[in-house]
Amino acid sequence: MIEEFHRIKRLPPYVFAEVNRLKGEARARGADIIDLGMGNPDLPTPQHIVDKLVETVAKPRTNRYSASKGIPGLRRAQAAYYERRFGVKLNPETQIVATLGSKEGFANMAQAITAPGDVIIVPNPTYPIHEFGFLISGASVRHIPASTGEDFLRAVDRACRHTIPKPIAMVLSYPSNPTAMIADLDFYKAAVELAKRLGIIILSDLAYSEVYFDDTPPPSVLQVPGALDVTVEFTSLSKTYSMPGWRMGFAVGNERLINALARVKSYLDYGAFTPIQVAAAAALNGPQDCVEEVRQIYKRRRDVLVESFARAGWDIPPPPATMFAWAPIPDRFKGLGSVEFSKLMIEKADVAVSPGLGFGEYGEGFVRIALVENEHRIRQAARNIKKFLAQSPETLHNVIPIPQKASR
């Protein structure tokens, strides 16, 4: 019998696999599955960004190897974005690295800073790479229930005092995927103070910095004085400019940590295709009305989702940010768990969602719903769900355990 390789054995079974299989089988049978599961933006990339890509790709020299840490113009564009948006000044030569999406940046940062046996503090539930990037690198993960309050920071403090070896870093992710939690500047100030006192690194995921629905834009932890001493922050163009397949993101912050990431990347890749980097710079430097348009589309979809699902009998808290709603499973189905409920949604309502368990054990009891279909399709999903919820337990007896009366 052939044993699994060591790093593969450290990865748990893929929670989404069974749901994805059922979704594929349903579509093969001709079912019209409304896919609100995968967070794959459906909006077109703004035309001026596409035009810059087309213009650049026609130049013969742009088909050569690019720069692993990002071309200078792109790093300068990211520095300008941070100064414009957050009032944070960054050195594009020493404090910015372009990454192949924030996910790759996170995974390679884990490779750069982690030794076997190191411990990382990770919120739970959270985006899977926050945990698995470090597990693949040989680290251990200490989970803290996700929140943006003092209880989270107290839990970090306890973890550092009572974990052997002491954790070397903590992950922050606000606005959060999947929960849509947001953090304010006071929370970040307390987090930076704690990290400095404990001697740990902050790894901040700010991929949804521009997808927010209230008047106050989400802050960056780097706005806190002294945060650059201990922090690297990851951002992405995927959602802001509807460029998910372009795979363009950034890591910015502490020079020592950025240098470590750049060195690891120099052994692994030559950076994104140069025309993509040029077009990404055009996105950051160009007109930003497209960002507001994307934000308003997601806000309208959020409002339609919350209102139409409530009429269907499923109350969902309106998310303040991100392109996701974090939805508690209806009481009648809580006993199934998030995976079985997600499978049932495909089978009985032709709607795909992501089981909360896929984002960590504390995600059980919830599903993540992505705002990646238009308003008409979201309303159709609500109609399907209304019919599904109206079915009697007897109709669903093959999947829902029917409580038995206790014997006397």
Quick summary of this structure?
With 408 residues, the chain is an alpha/beta fold. The protein has helices spanning 6-9, 17-28, 47-57, 72-86, 101-113, 129-136, 150-162, 185-198, 255-268, 274-285, 289-312, 338-349, 375-390; strands spanning 34-35, 96-99, 119-124, 140-145, 169-173, 201-205, 231-236, 249-253, 324-328, 351-352, 354-355, 366-370.
List the helices and strands and how they pair.
Layout: H1 6-9, H2 17-28, E1 34-35, H3 47-57, H4 72-86, E2 96-99, H5 101-113, E3 119-124, H6 129-136, E4 140-145, H7 150-162, E5 169-173, H8 185-198, E6 201-205, E7 231-236, E8 249-253, H9 255-268, H10 274-285, H11 289-312, E9 324-328, H12 338-349, E10 351-352, E11 354-355, E12 366-370, H13 375-390
Parallel strand pairs: 1-10, 3-4, 3-5, 5-6, 6-7
Antiparallel strand pairs: 2-8, 7-8, 9-12, 11-12
CATH architecture of the largest domain: 3-Layer(aba) Sandwich
From the spread of the alpha carbons, the general shape counts as globular
Largest sheet, in brief, is:
7 strands, mixed
Mean pLDDT across every amino acid position: 91
| SS content category | alpha/beta
Give the tally of β-strands: 12
Widest sheet: strand ordering = 2-8-7-6-5-3-4
Count structural domains: 2
Strand content: 5-15%
Please tell me how large the radius of gyration is.
Answer: 22 Å
SSE topology string: HHEHHEHEHEHEHEEEHHHEHEEEH
CATH superfamily of the largest domain: Type I PLP-dependent aspartate aminotransferase-like (Major domain)
Helix content: 40-55%
